[in-house]
Amino acid sequence: MVSIKDVAKKAGVAASTVSKVLNNYPNVSAETRKKVNDAISELNFVPNAVASALSSKQAGRVAILMNQSSQTTSIDEVDMQYISGAILKARELGLDVITIFFSMFEDKSVDEISAYLRSQSITGIVIFGLSRENANIIKLINREEFKCVLVDAPLINKSTSCVWADQAKAQYDVANEVLKTDPVKSMLYISGKENGFVTAERLKGIKALCRDKDIALTAKCGDFSEKKAREITLECGKDYDMIACASDMMAIGAMMALKEEDIFRPVCGFDGITLMGYVSNRMTTVRQNFFEIASKAMEEAENLISGGLGREIHTDYEIVRLDYKDILR
Amino acid sequence: MVSIKDVAKKAGVAASTVSKVLNNYPNVSAETRKKVNDAISELNFVPNAVASALSSKQAGRVAILMNQSSQTTSIDEVDMQYISGAILKARELGLDVITIFFSMFEDKSVDEISAYLRSQSITGIVIFGLSRENANIIKLINREEFKCVLVDAPLINKSTSCVWADQAKAQYDVANEVLKTDPVKSMLYISGKENGFVTAERLKGIKALCRDKDIALTAKCGDFSEKKAREITLECGKDYDMIACASDMMAIGAMMALKEEDIFRPVCGFDGITLMGYVSNRMTTVRQNFFEIASKAMEEAENLISGGLGREIHTDYEIVRLDYKDILR
DNA sequence: TTGTAGGCGTTATCAT
DNA sequence: ATGATAACGCCTACAA
C-alpha cells in the first residue's frame, strides 16, 4: 500500500508536509505543493481513510440510519433515493459513510447504541423515518453526543437539525389542487400513524383547507397502511366526495378499493412515488425529491460537524399528477 | 471514549491481554478472561473498529458495489433488499461495510479504483448488477487484488465467487408454468440486454423449453426496458400466443400494452417484484429472495477473505403468481 | 515554510 | 499465561 511516506520520499519532503498539502493547510509554498501533488498523482495515492479517521477524531464518519427494507415497493423507492443522495453527497464532502438500520438497535440500550457508534468513530448521524417508537434513538439525540440530522422529524437542539418540507402547507396544497377540478362538499382524510411526527402537521393542513373552503371533514387514522386505507374506503369511501390520504400507499389502497366497488372519487396522496403511475391516472400527490433531501441532510450533517448549530431546513415539493406515461422508461 | 486501556486498568491486566480476550486467542486463563469480560461490560466497552482495521490489515472491510437508485420502483426494491441482506449479515459476521455505486467510478482508471478501495482498507467487494459495460471493474476483478463476490455475473477465479440462481432452468420453469394453463403454439420472448451476463443463460432456457414443447419461438431484445417491451408488444404482441419476458419490468410493459390494445395474452416475467401485484393478476414470474441472496453473498465474501477459493453458488427461486391480495399489507 | 516527534486505539511479536 | 513494545498510516502541536 502506498502511504504518505512514499509520497513524501518521492516529493523529497517530510510526511507532515504531505499531510498539510492533503488537508489544505495555509503555510505551504506553491512550489512544495506542486511537488507533492505531482508525487501523489504519479503514485496514485489516496489517503487511507481509516488511518485518517483514527488520527484526527474529527475526520467525520457519518452514519445513515433508516428502516430496513420493508419489501414494500414505495418505501424501498424512497429509501434507495435517500441512500443514494446521502452517500453521493458524503463522497463529495469527503465524509466516510456507514449505513445502519433501526433493527440493529432494537434490543440495545442507549448506552450500548452510543458505544457502538463511537466504536465506529461516528460523529454525525443522518436519520430517516424516525418515529416516536424509536425511544432510545430519541434519547440519544437529546444527549447531543452526536451531530444528528433528522429527515421528517422535528427535533432540534444545538447539535440536531431537522430537514423536511412544510408538511401542513403541502397537504393543504395537494388537496386544494383536487378542488380545482372536482366539486367537493365532504372529504374523508386518512391520516398517518397516530403519533407520527408528520401526522399532526399534515392534519393541520387539511383542517385549514376544509375550513377555508367550507368542506365537511372526517379524519380517520390509516397508520400509513395501504391495507387499512383500503378497509376504511370499502367501509365508507362512497359517503364522501373526495378522499385525501397522508401517503401514496394509502391513496393506492383507497383507489384500489374504489375501483373494486366500481365507484369513483378523486383521491390524493403524499410522496410522489412511481407506483402511483401504475395504479390510476386520477391521483394527485405531493412529489418530494428524496435524493435532493438526503443530499441536503448530508450537507447539514457536515455543517453541524464543523461547528454549526442545529436548525430547521425546509425542502421543496411540487404538486403533481402521475400518469403511466410519465413514469414509463 | 473508553478504550482498551481503560478496560485493562479496570481489570488489572495489560492492554494486549484485553485484545487477546476480544479476539478469542487461545492462551488466556479462564480467570483473566472473566475479569476482562466483566470490565468490558461494566464500562460498556466496544472495540474501536477503525483502530482495529488500521492495526490488523486483515480486519476485513467489505464494500457493497451496486447501481445507484434508478428511480425505478422495481430496481429499487431489489437493491434495497440487497443492501439490507448484505449489511445485516455483515454485522453478524463482524465485518465493516461501506456502500458505493458504480457511478462513483465512472471516469476512474482501474488503478484509481484500486487505490481508492485500498485507501478504504477494503479487502472484499460484493458486487450487484455488474454488466459488461463496467469494463474497469471487470479488470479489477481479474487482477484478483480484492476478494470479490458477484451476484448474477459468472466470473470466477481464485478470489472471485459468483452467486446466482440457475438462470436457464428458472426461465424454463416459469414459462413452462404458463403452458400448464394456456395452450401455446407460438411464443414471443423479450430478452434482456444484448450482452448481459444473464441474458444468454435465460435465452438458453427458453429455447430449451420451446424445443421440448414444440413451440415456435421468436426472440427480440428488450434491453430490460419497460418502454421497449411495451413497444415491441404494441408492434407484434398479438401475433403470438404468449409473451415471456426476461424481467418483470418488461413483463409489465408488455402487459400494459396488451391492456391498451384490449387483447389478452399470458405474460410471464422474472424477479418477483411487488409491482407485479398491482398491474395484473395474470402474470407468472420467478421470485427470488434478494435479501437471502445478498446474505449468502456476504457470507461468501467472508469465506473468501478467510482464505476460501472462488466458486459458484446457486441460489433458490420459486415460480409464483403475484396478485394484489398477496402483496397488500 | 518545513521537519520532528508523539499519539490516535488496536493488534502482533517477542520476552518474561 | 501475561506483559512490554513496536507497528498500522495519518494528524498536529511544536521546534527549527
Explain what the structure shows.
The structure is a homodimer of 329-residue chains. By secondary structure, chain A is α/β, with parallel strands linked by helices. Helices cover 47% and strands 19% of the residues of chain A. In chain A, the strands form two sheets. A six-stranded parallel β-sheet of chain A has the order 2-1-3-4-5-11, sandwiched between helices. A six-stranded mixed β-sheet of chain A has the order 7-6-8-9-10-12, sandwiched between helices. The two termini of chain A are 44 Å apart. The mean pLDDT of chain A is 92. The interface between A and B is large, with 61 and 61 residues. Chain A binds a DNA duplex (16 and 16 nucleotides) through helix 2 and helix 4.
Q: What is the annotated CATH architecture of the largest domain in chain A? A: 3-Layer(aba) Sandwich
Strand order of the largest sheet of chain A: 2-1-3-4-5-11
Uncertain spans of chain A: none
Bulk shape of chain A: elongated
Task: Write a short abstract of this structure.
2 copies of one chain form a homodimer. With 329 residues, chain A is α/β, with parallel strands linked by helices.
